[in-house]
Write the structure tokens for this entry.
Amino acid sequence: MRDVFGVAADWLDEGRAFALATLIALREAATAPVGTTIAVDVSGRVSGNIGAGCYETEILEACIQTAVDGTTRRLDINLTSDDELMGGSPCGAVMQVVVWRPLPAFREAARAIAAGEVETVLTIAYRESDGTNVTFEHAFQPKDTLILVGATTLAAELASTGQRLDFNVVVVDPRPAFATPERVPHAHRLVRDWPDDVLPRMLSARTPIVMLSHDPKFDLPALRCALNSAAPYIGLLGSRRLQQARRASLRESGFDDGALARIHGPAGLDIGGSTVAETALSILAEIVASRHGREGAPLRSARGSIHHGVERVANRT
């Protein structure tokens, strides 16, 4: 969702003619969160996806028009009656999309949204067909930070996939030979220090953490720091025997059963995988489920909304 803003900033640097299409309101179904944006240049090159099914072409054409003439356009898209056999979308969403051409000054905000380090407000001013002036605002919150203790092969896989799930990934490992950009190329940051020296000031309610090292010198200090924090997810890799040993050590340190129940260990959902990629998928799936208050059960057995907590209404003034 954020990467398109990095593309927009690059295109502004190049002086390329392009427009952005931003989802400003949504009801009936959640194809994407409000604020989702695509970029389309005058030649039809596209970055991003807005989830409009067969209406994507209409949005692309509107973007090309706006890239040329600079006119802001609002599109009302109704997916509730589309026929699947005719290539439509059965998702049932009703969407409002604003197509707009950013000014060069938008470059700084675009890079801030893409980086996700601070809250950044996207503001789009446009005029309705009846002449009413409208301002749409959407606050992009800072990315959550996924902390991985141990610069392992699995850490590299988690970092690669985690960044696509809108996490800034930080890897903590005091070993210079392990904590290198070559070993973990997709980490947002590598911290070459002992976990108990750095984690107390890093952990918060927005920092899930996973211990990956299998080494008690790293696992136990990191677990103690995590249990003394508001970390929303505490994962521990390792066998059931290792889990029992770590819990026994933590009990000796004064942690009770209530505290130890916060540890997801062995980390991950039971998907039957064994490869590094499958293990990373399992762990990240559990983190995402935890993030949204879900258990990770099959959707076919779940009731209620498929997409949990998706913003559906624009902030308009």
